[in-house]
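Task: encode each sequence below as structure tokens.

Item 1
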Amino acid sequence: MTRIQLLTILVNFIFIAYIARLIIKGKLREEYAIIWVICTILLTIFSFWPNGLEIMAKLLGVFQAPNLLFTGAIFAILIYLVHISVVSSKLHNNIRKLTQEMALLKQELEKEKQENKHPQKDPD
């Protein structure tokens, strides 16, 4: 095994441990960590199997293996960006709804305070 393979494998294991630590501490949710774990596992597999990228490129009809790597990375990034956009849109809608509900509750509270300050007298 070459020095770069060993270094890549070591860095991949350190990165997986770091991702696990972030999940355990609650700083990273599992749904966001899955893409990092999958990419790291793929890099680890290709670190152990150096000719694997060439074989995969031939099977998929890609002329040069680095093109397959870059195409896969771009595809993964695009999927991740769409996912983040969906989550961001959902959170934006939730924040808007919560803000509206909070404004209504604040208005009701102030109305209650006004009524308690100036109680209406019964016409009895």
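Item 2
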Amino acid sequence: MRASLLQLSVDSSETAEDRRLRAAAKVRDRAGDDLVVLPELWTAGAWAYDDWEREAEPLDGPTAAAMSDAARAAGVWLHAGSIVERDAGGTLYNTALLFDRDGSLRGHYRKIHRYGFDTGEAVAMGGGNDVVTVATEFGGLGLAICYDIRFPELFRGLLDVGAELIVLPAAWPAKRLAHLQLLVRARAVEEQVFLLACDATGTHGGMQQAGHSMIVDPWGTVVADAGDGERTVTADVDMAEVTRIRTELPVLRDRVLGIPAPVPH
């Protein structure tokens, strides 16, 4: 399975529509790949809180339409990063979209863990409730977004509903790049999955984003790293490695569930 991460520059000098057109062209250029991934909130900007109301859209809005067409034109599975979704009741969500080779929306995930510590996403958006894995011809594909990576229980939940690879769009701050690199490798090792983390680059809403999109295998090896700046990183992913490593080091069978809460003394 050939996967490409499109590490877009998300910059306040470019409109959301211009970035949508540019991203769609980049996806079309990836014909021959199996899976293409975009970053978190790349249309509105993950750090441009004041723009979210204006750029919010429904699941079948302009970003979904453009990405559906691009996936179909390239013949790829497309994880279109995430959008600012507005539901029928007006609530905003940070929502990931996954399209198949025909351009059909095969799954969406509303981010469960909202970043901001009583500001930004934490107060402006609703939180999701569902752990989402989508069946593909190359294995169960689990969905998570950025800040989710700090919460291992979600990734264990994805494992329990069949994830063999997990895709993480992100808009991670450059000043905490080391945390992203550590956590992505840790989650891949814990769940014995391939983990594809597609991060944004550029400055938006006053925040420099980290870049360094990564493809990490179930052994925790970094197969590909995009480095700084806008670029595409591509790697051939052998999904048979998931079964091989889970057999060679069968730690998942030794999980102990239902550990009782500690009793205070």
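Check on item 2: The longest helix spans residues 177-191. The mean pLDDT is 96.
End of task.
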